[in-house]
Amino acid sequence: MEVDFLVIGSGIAGLSFALKVAEYGKVCVLTKAAADEGSTKYAQGGIAAVIYDTDSFDKHIQDTLIAGAGICDEDTVRMTITEAPDRIKELIRYGIRFDKRPDGLYDLHREGGHSNFRILHHKDNTGAEVERGLLEEVRNHPNITLSEHHYAVEIITQHHLGQWVTHHTPDIECYGAYVLNSQTKKVETYLAKITMLATGGIGNVYTTTTNPITATGDGVAMVHRARGKVSDMEFVQFHPTSLYNPGERPAFLITEAMRGAGAILKDAHGNEFMQKYDQRLSLAPRDIVARAIDNEMKISGAEHLYLDARHLGKSVLMESFPNIYAKCLELGINIAKDMIPIRPAAHYQCGGIVVDKNGESSIHHLYAAGECSRTGLHGGNRLASNSLLEAIVYAHNAAMDAIEKVKNISVRHDIPSWNAEGMVFNEEMVLITQTRKELQELMSNYVGIVRSNLRLKRAYDRLSLIYKETEDLYNRSVLTEELSELRNLIACAYLIIRAATQRQESIGLHYSVDYPPQK
Ligand code: FAD
Ligand code: SIN
Fold first, then answer.
1. Do residues 265 and 259 make contact, with C-beta atoms less than 8 angstroms apart?
2. Is 72 exposed, middle or buried (0-12, 13-18, 19+ CB in 10 A)?
3. CA distance to 292, 323, 453, 470, per residue, from 206 (Å)
4. How far is Cα 442 from Cα 430, in angstroms, rounded to an integer?
5. How far apart are alpha carbons 129 and 96 in whole angstroms?
6. CATH code for 239-344?
7. Relative to the CA of 35, which ligand 1 atom is closest?
8. 135 C-alpha to ligand 1 centroid (Å)
9. Is 487 assigned a catalytic role?
10. Catalytic residue of the set 87, 286, 291, 382
């Protein structure tokens, strides 16, 4: 297969990029699952943007910088927030619907860390509406091929031409990707002038996550192995309120917009506790709220705490949060009468593949957008509902840059096929499933919301063993998606532990008991 633009991932980032470059060449969008499977579909709260003059760019910028613990890239923040209204208008032109009030104005929600009501939403399933609209456009575009159940294994660089590539090699180039076709079980070569990684997050590094099964950090791991730059991996965001329903994977999210509407966090005895931690109470930034819940659970030994939304009333709950209402009812929880059992869950990766303002990575002809990228917008902690926004802004900027650059790039035809010689079928899935569980447990127990030097060292030692065993298995086995994903999860876990160990302070989402934060 040979194309101008190869897009890996069919969430908001990949689809937005594909639609923009499709007028300028042949595009192939690959996705390892069904087209709509990815975090985008599950997004509930919405997209943050300054829409009316009751709000201002400066306020949104300040809120983002404060949530980011002072280590955001300020230029990136300003650029993203000021470009937001144009990108939102495009979504609306694609036919994506955001809720309006009876007076015709957009019904804006508010979430933790926001000083204003500025979250555009569609009920409590904004992501599903965004994914629907974008997929419809992509499917109707004559220049775009969408291939489901195609799993990108590695990006192709000089390394595959037999050249020695290190982290110091100055001009690493990307020529496309090796892709496992789930139907034929063969690894195919996809050659491209430009490759876009839009592979989403890493939630499955942890035992409890709101992320779908697709979130295994494939893009980040591929770039790391190709010796590209990855950064800020220590900043893993835990969402404070996932529904406590042991065994359910992914964990169902209770949107922060519910706290924005007035729902209150309570302990097992029905008492409020956030006043002990932050004057913004239940609407403090996510890192603070998640740590507070973690601490309350540790002190009391409780498996979960509660979110109390009863006082909002049945009609508001059913109208604004219909999916949450229905989901809880299915489990026997009537949220108009009962408190909702909640606990934190791994939710979002703030770091990732380092990109510049045009979304280009440190590897030439390779772009990244969406959750797999590190733009500098989030700093130490992402402000709620800024990630869908980041994805559309960077998909746009990357497209504008790629449209210019593609004119001077040729496809390389000297790329060797994937070499599977001498590999044998791995007959024992347990070697993969058990290792995956071990990895998730060690990351949850030692590299979760609260860390320490000792826990990080333990995690690293155990991960080293898991890494070695898995590489041995990989080097003798016919490639499968499960094995490749396990390698990617291990690579991401390694990057998180390494970054957390190097950061000898508590800041944003990285909190270590060995480095109490400055008061
Ligand atoms: P995704 O939508 O995750 O898409 C990744 C794509 O890459 C998928 O198609 C996947 O199959 C594909 N892929 C991955 N690896 C490979 C591979 N090796 N080969 C081929 N394909 C591959 N953010 C907000 O701003 N507002 C919200 O309200 C909000 N709510 C959220 C609620 C939940 C429950 C979750 C999980 C996240 C939420 N987020 C929210 C975060 C936001 O949804 C994600 O950050 C965003 O959707 C990521 O988009 P993406 O395009 O980068 O990745
Ligand atoms: C939520 O709806 O609480 C999630 C919002 C986000 O992750 O940005």
1. yes
2. buried
3. 19, 25, 19, 18
4. 18
5. 6
6. 3.90.700.10
7. 9
8. 14
9. no
10. 286
The reply to whether domains 2-234+350-408 and 430-478+480-512 share a CATH topology is: no
Atom of ligand 2 nearest to the CA of 386: 8
Per-residue pLDDT tens digits for 188-233: 999 999 999 999 999 999 999 999 999 999 999 999 999 999 999 9
CB 197 within 8 Å of CB 219: yes
Ligand 1 centroid to Cα of residue 353, in Å, is 15
Q: pLDDT tens, 337-377?
A: 999 999 999 999 999 999 999 999 999 999 999 999 999 99
Q: What is the residue-averaged pLDDT of the chain?
A: 96
∠44-48-53 over CA atoms, to 5°?
140
User: Rounded CA gap, 141 and 120, in Å?
Assistant: 27
Quote the ligand 1 centre to 277 CA distance (angstroms): 31
Q: In Å, how far are 169, 237, 509, 510 from 382, measured between CA atoms?
A: 32, 7, 9, 12
Question: What are the contacts of 473-480 at 24+ separation with CB within 8 A?
Answer: 473/426, 473/431, 473/432, 476/422, 476/423, 476/424, 477/423, 477/424, 477/425, 477/426, 478/420, 478/423, 478/424, 478/425, 478/426, 479/153, 479/180, 479/187, 479/418, 479/420, 479/423, 480/180, 480/426
| Closest of 393, 402, 395 to residue 369, by C-alpha | 395
Is the sign of the CA dihedral 359, 362, 363, 364 positive or negative?
Answer: positive
**430-478+480-512 has which fold?**
Methane Monooxygenase Hydroxylase; Chain G, domain 1 (1.20.58)
Using CB distances shorter than 6 Å, the residues near ligand 2 are: 44-45, 255-257, 348, 384-385, 387
Domain coordinates of the chain in residue numbers? Answer: 2-234+350-408, 239-344, 430-478+480-512
Alpha helix positions (H), 362-416: 387-405
Fill in the DSSP letter of residue 383: P
What confidence tier does 519 reach under pLDDT thresholds 50, 70, 90? low
- Which overall architecture, per CATH, does domain 2-234+350-408 show? 3-Layer(bba) Sandwich (3.50)
pLDDT at position 130 = 98
| Distance of CA 455 from the midpoint of ligand 2 (Å) | 29
| Backbone CA torsion sign across 358, 361, 365, 369 | negative
Residue owning the nearest CA to atom 14 of ligand 1: 199
Alpha-carbon span 127 to 135, nearest angstrom: 12
Q: How far is CA 343 from CA 176, 297, 347, 387, in A?
A: 41, 9, 12, 22
Q: At residue 476, does pLDDT exceed 80?
A: yes
